[in-house]
Recover the amino acids of this structure.
């Protein structure tokens, strides 16, 4: 029967591994987890660490991209409305004074 560990349990075990106060051979029977599984969890943590520090940068890039996309959409809308106003002025014969 397989045991299922919560994220909190896995984190606690990996932190213990990273502290290096015990060997993997000592930790494995203590928690009933095969050493290969422990190494796998540790590798996942080590691979994910850079992402923790880059979240703010990624969010900022996404925010800037969204703002740029909105700006382009608004400029396109301004261009469309300007064209419509010009066409309506021409058809109605009313001359609009530029400000």
């Amino acid at each position: 029967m397989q045991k299922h560990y919560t994220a909190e349990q896995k984190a606690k075990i990996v932190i213990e591994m990273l502290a290096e106060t015990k060997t993997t051979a000592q930790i494995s029977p203590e928690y009933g987890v095969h050493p290969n599984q422990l190494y796998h969890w540790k590798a996942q943590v080590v691979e994910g660490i850079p992402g923790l520090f880059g979240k703010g940068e990624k969010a900022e890039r996404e925010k800037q991209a969204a703002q740029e996309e909105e700006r382009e959409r608004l400029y396109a809308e301004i261009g469309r409305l300007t064209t419509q106003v010009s066409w309506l002025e021409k058809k109605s014969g009313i001359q609009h004074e530029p400000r």
Observations:
- The chain is about 80% helix and 0% strand.
- The two ends are 79 Å apart (CA to CA).
- The CA atoms of residues 90 and 96 lie 10 Å apart.
- The mean pLDDT is 89.
